């Protein structure tokens, strides 16, 4: 490998990206807007977990009276919503838009038999009825079945704290796949690679320059976005910043290598865009960017493990939220290293100038 040729291609690729102001600005602005949006949407008082409709004449006054008489209507984390049309409200219960519905005029209530939230609310209603009946110590002993109550305390983990590793990793994914794979295909289509083939530059030197150029740009943007957003949102961070940096660096290498593999032979930008979307969108939805995969079909959870983005997000969340060490995320780091090596090897073997 000739270091001078490598550095020349590296510098040229860096200048090309930096001069593209629109692409540079979007790579920085996009994750900031997503993080800020989630921080605003989920800030303030925690959202109520259950929605209960209240029907009747003057429902607000009757609800106030019901709160004085019934323990259920004083239960926390339940949003009581006055409704005007009973038939429309029943339809909302059928469609899971309301978890429970009360007709205070006729002492009726509705739940959806297929709704887990409706089931839980009905159990709460039964328990509250015991309190209303003055069950006292015997009822409390029966409810606890002899277990002693214990309490814990700790800082609340907001949704924005949970989602930030996924947002940063997702931005890395799109920047890696499209910033490397799509660019190389464009080079091949425009004849740039054919001209480079006529020079002493080797394929390994060219691909290495692409990887290093995209890597430092991705890491610089990721650090900038994290630090800038943290100043306003104050993310939860229980682990070491060095460990988090290592995870994101290795994850970026793996994703860049995947982009190189996709672009190894393709000549059509349209085909490249289709394949990159085919790879990126399932990876984004199945890797736990927006929601946890716990409780989903075991087959889906196993399928998610084939994506490098899954291991990046799992390791980053463990470090930020659980304070995990490198030993704790060693499995994810090993998988990312193996994936990077395999993708790079296959990309170098399959790469064609024309």
Helix content: 55-70%
User: In this structure, how is the largest beta sheet organized?
Assistant: 4 strands, mixed
Structural class of the secondary structure composition? mainly alpha
Placed side by side, the strands forming the largest sheet appear as 2-1-3-4
Please characterize this protein's 3D structure.
- The structure is a single chain.
- With 354 residues, the protein is mainly α.
- The chain has 2 domains: 3-42 and 157-350, no CATH class; 50-144, 3-Layer(aba) Sandwich (D-Maltodextrin-Binding Protein, domain 2), CATH 3.40.190.
- The chain is 67% helix and 5% strand.
- It contains 14 helices and 4 strands.
- The protein has helices spanning 3-19, 21-41, 59-69, 86-94, 116-132, 136-144, 159-190, 192-197, 203-233, 241-262, 269-286, 298-304, 308-322, 330-350, and strands spanning 50-55, 78-83, 100-103, 108-110.
- Strands 2-1-3-4 form a 4-stranded mixed β-sheet, sandwiched between helices.
- β1, α3 and β2 form a beta-alpha-beta unit.
- α2 packs parallel to α9, α9 crosses α10 (241-262) and α13 runs antiparallel to α14 (330-350).
- The longest helix has 32 residues, at 159-190.
- It is elongated.
- Residues 142-153 have low confidence and may be disordered.
Q: Keywords for this structure?
A:
4 strands, 4-stranded mixed sheet, 67% helix, elongated, mainly alpha, 354 residues
Quick overview:
The protein has 354 residues and is mostly helical. The chain has helices at 3-19, 21-41, 59-69, 86-94, 116-132, 136-144, 159-190, 192-197, 203-233, 241-262, 269-286, 298-304, 308-322, 330-350; strands at residues 50-55, 78-83, 100-103, 108-110. The relative contact order is 0.11.
């Amino acid at each position: 490998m000739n270091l001078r040729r490598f550095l020349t291609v590296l510098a040229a690729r860096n200048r090309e990206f930096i001069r593209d102001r629109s692409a540079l600005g979007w790579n920085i602005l996009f994750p900031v807007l997503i993080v800020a949006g989630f921080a605003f949407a989920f800030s303030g008082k925690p959202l109520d977990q259950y929605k209960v409709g209240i029907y009747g004449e003057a429902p607000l006054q009757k609800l106030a009276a019901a709160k004085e008489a019934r323990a259920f209507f004083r239960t926390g984390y339940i949003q009581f919503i006055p409704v005007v049309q009973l038939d429309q409200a029943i339809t909302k219960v059928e469609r899971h838009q309301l978890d429970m519905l009360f007709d205070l005029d006729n002492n009726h209530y509705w739940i959806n038999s297929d709704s887990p939230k409706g089931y839980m609310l009905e159990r709460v209603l039964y328990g509250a009825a015991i309190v209303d009946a003055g069950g006292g110590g015997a009822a409390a002993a029966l409810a606890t079945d002899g277990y002693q109550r214990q309490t814990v305390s700790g800082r609340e983990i907001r949704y924005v704290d949970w989602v930030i590793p996924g947002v940063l990793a997702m931005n890395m994914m799109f920047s890696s796949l499209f910033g490397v794979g799509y660019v190389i295909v464009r080079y091949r289509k425009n004849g740039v690679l054919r001209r480079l083939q006529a020079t002493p530059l080797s394929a390994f030197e060219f691909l290495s320059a692409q990887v290093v150029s995209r890597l430092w740009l991705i890491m610089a943007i990721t650090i900038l976005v994290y630090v800038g957003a943290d100043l306003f949102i104050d993310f939860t961070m229980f682990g070491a910043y060095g460990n988090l940096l290592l995870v994101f660096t290795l994850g970026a290498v793996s994703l860049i290598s995947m982009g190189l593999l996709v672009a190894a032979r393709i000549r059509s930008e349209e085909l490249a865009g289709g394949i990159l979307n085919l790879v990126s969108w399932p990876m984004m939805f199945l890797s736990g960017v927006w929601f946890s995969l716990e409780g989903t079909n075991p087959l889906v959870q196993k399928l998610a493990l084939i994506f490098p983005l899954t291991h990046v997000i799992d390791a980053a969340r463990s470090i930020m939220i659980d304070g995990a060490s490198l030993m704790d995320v060693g499995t994810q780091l090993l998988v990312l290293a193996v994936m990077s090596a395999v993708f790079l090897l296959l990309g170098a073997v399959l790469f064609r100038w024309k």
